[in-house]
Amino acid sequence: MIRPSPLLALLFALACAGRQDPPTTPEGRVREMPAPARIVDLRTGEEVDELTMLADLRGARAIYLGESHDDTLDHAMQYRLLRELHRQDGALVLGMEMFQRPYQAVLDDWTAGRLDEEALRRRTEWDTRWGFDIRLYRPMLEFARARGVPVIALNARRELSRAVAMSGLEGLDEALRADVPAELDLEDEAHRALVMEALAEHPHGADEAALERMYEAQVLWDETMAERVAAALEAGASRIVVLAGSMHVRAGLGIPRRAARRGAEPWRVVLAVHEDDEETLEALLEAEPRPADYLWVHEDE
User: Fold this and answer.
1) How far apart are CA 164 and CA 141, in angstroms?
2) What CATH number does the domain located at 34-101+148-298 have?
3) How far apart are CA 301 and CA 298, in angstroms?
4) Which helix (DSSP H) or strand (DSSP E) does residue 230 occupy?
């Protein structure tokens, strides 16, 4: 099931108040990179093979690989496609929602081999700022370091997003306002509907003003990440592979169209779903607007 971003749940609460594991472990399953049960081109509704999809992705400058953050097979898909895309283009960069902008220098040290994983985790404050099991991301991070692939910290810093969720954009102090992207599109009705639908599933209530602040925070995340994606391409990267929660890339409404507005195009979105999650699979196949360019269907054991 494609779940709402856990960051939305956090904002709701604020507004209202190099190792090889065996394949039996989650990390081992990521490294195993299982093939999909099938791939659906959602533009045509037809099934395609992996080579056909990769040939199409080769023409994109920004490739967004959505995830549910704790889903092992979503990360296995990302790792498999990152390796194949790098095989096509050794000059690509990797953008990650999981790291916040102030920690870019730490990621540069990681790619250059100047840090071990423990230092990376400590200096980026991974456990408190992201919190999901780093072992699920270890294969991608180690691959990037081994191949010299720059890793781009995409996300807004937590202090900024929390302040927006609690006080709104108008309530920011001067220091925080300096980190707000120059362009913030709050008028995209399709994006607003997507986010509000996710918020409606939250078990706690919130008034209209709180919901608006949370929507502003979501737009802040997406615009910040879009700005970073476009900047990486403008700085000379041939293309960027982006790892981000599905809510940030679905239908291109979060990061992709906002990055394209800044020049990051053409782009493609790949979302994943489990074959045995029939309700979600059917919903994605029938959804309007189209949720992705490709749907990667996991073969569950």
Assistant:
1) 30
2) 3.40.50
3) 9
4) helix 208-234
Grouping H, G, I as helix, E, B as strand and the rest as coil, residue 94 is strand
What would the pLDDT profile of 207-260 be if each residue is shown by its tens digit? 889 999 999 999 999 999 999 999 999 999 999 999 999 999 999 999 999 999
Model pLDDT for residues 133-151, shown as the tens digit of each residue: 999 999 999 999 999 999 9
Q: Are 166 and 112 in contact (CB under 8 A)?
A: no
Residue 169 CB neighbours (<10 A): 18
If one compares 301 and 122, the residue with the highest pLDDT of the two is 122
Cα(281)–Cα(250) distance, rounded to whole angstroms?
14
DSSP E strand boundaries for the chain: 38-41, 46-48, 62-67, 93-100, 151-155, 240-245, 267-274, 294-298
**Is the model more confident about 106 or about 12?**
106
- How far from each other are the two terminal CA atoms of the chain, in whole angstroms? 16
**Is the separation of the CB atoms in 209 and 215 below 8 Å?**
no
User: What is the crossing angle of helices 208-234 and 189-200, to 10°?
Assistant: 120
Give yes or no for a contact between 299 and 77, defined as CB atoms under 8 angstroms apart.
Answer: no
Helix 158-167 × helix 6-16 angle, to 10°: 50
Q: Where are the domains of the chain?
A: 34-101+148-298
Q: Which of 17, 66, 62, 29 is nearest to 260 (CA)?
A: 62
Is the CB of residue 107 less than 8 Å from the CB of residue 152? yes
Between CA 42 and CA 213 the distance in angstroms is 33
Side chain identity at residue 231, one-letter code? A
